[in-house]
Every structure is written in structure tokens, then in C-alpha cells.
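Table S2 (continued). Query chain:
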Amino acid sequence: MCSRLWFEVRGQGVVVRDYDEFICAHVTADASDLLDALGIATRSPAGEVAVWIDPGWQWWREVGHVSVTGNRIQIWPHRGITGTDMDVLRGAACDAFRIPPSSAAQWLRRGRGWECSISVPAD
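Corresponding output:
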């Protein structure tokens, strides 16, 4: 189980507007040919893992972001995530190729592209 956050940046803060739980595939690093064919690139880790709580008191760890601009899909992992977390981010990027981003799917419009935050349950 994963979660996509739909958030809004307001001044110095971020407001979570909604989130969407979904089953995400785990795509391992050895699938680089698939990722290249889909136009998926991984950027250098930036940002820190953040923990948040949904309305049902489920704890989540935000492990990174996926952005889509035209045919380009980028994975932006946070520093210090696990290999399994990275597999989830790659799976979410593949999902973004298969199902185009939209507001209805909890993606945020950013200029000409889309962005979403990916979280996993905090165990």
C-alpha cells in the first residue's frame, strides 16, 4: 500500500488537501532497461523523509516525489530511504507512465507538469 498526497504550498507552509491510497508495484533497480524505455530518470536524493498521520490515524513516511513533464518522468527520492522505498518510487513512476497524472488522481499541477508525493506506511 502506498499513498499519493495532494498538497498545496501556502507561503512557508504546506497544506495537505487530500490523499489517495493505492497498491503500487515494486520495481527493482535491475529493471533499468524498462525504466529507460519509459523515459523514467532518477535524480539525486534531496529532502528528508517526513512522517504524517492520516485521518484514520495511519502513520505514513513520505519517501520522495514523482514529477511528469511531457514525456519525461522523474523520481526525486528523499535522503536516507531504504531500497524497498526506492522500489516503491520506481513503481509509482511506472504507474505515472501507465495512467496519466490528473487532479482526480491526487497529482498537483506545477507549471507545465505534474507532481505527487509518495508515502509508504510507517511501521
